[in-house]
Amino acid sequence: MGILLAVSPSAIGENNSLNNNINYLFDKSNKKEIDVTKISIGGIKLGMQEKELIQKLGKPKSRTIKYDDGCYNSYVTTWKYDGLEITGLSDTNNPSQSRVESMFTFSSRYPTEKGIKVGDNISKAQKAYFNLLSQFNRRKDLDYLGYYTSEFHGGLSFSSDKQKSLNKLAWWQHLVKIKF
Predict the structure, then answer these.
(1) What gap in Å lies between CA 148 and CA 44, rounded to an integer?
(2) Which domain holds residue 51?
(3) Residues linked to residue 44 through DSSP beta bridges, in sequence order
(4) Number of domains within the chain
(5) For residues 179 and 57, what is the distance between their CA atoms, to the nearest angstrom?
(6) Which of 60, 68, 121, 128 is the most buried (most CB within 10 A)?
């Protein structure tokens, strides 16, 4: 028997305070929480399998599979394309059975379903997703704009440089099983 734990990659190693997360969770505006099943980057959606990735993007430059007995307790498949990395999870060591659970890109070739891509101004992302609850974090040399599920186990995030130009897009839905 195990416990299901949700993990947000944005919360790890970033300068987020618990109060910021709590304020976000209890926001009473008309904005709604992101539905990660409706998000795509480069036409890739949550839950797609390898066959669908290859149909959309072609054969990856590389593909690796390894068992992760720490957080995932699953086989983790990573498909790498120019400027794009996609991760999938599976209970078997067969990569064709893996389902997409996260991806990130540093390339303008892979826009979101709303047409937002690397190189766009961060304000374009804010306008495109204006009706969703968001969290904005400013660091010394980067800004982060994130749209997260209330449990912080899924979301869409953008990072931008000092000129407000997007340099990374990330999307994920993590459900992590921990054995005791």
Answers:
(1) 18
(2) 2-179
(3) 41
(4) 1
(5) 35
(6) 60
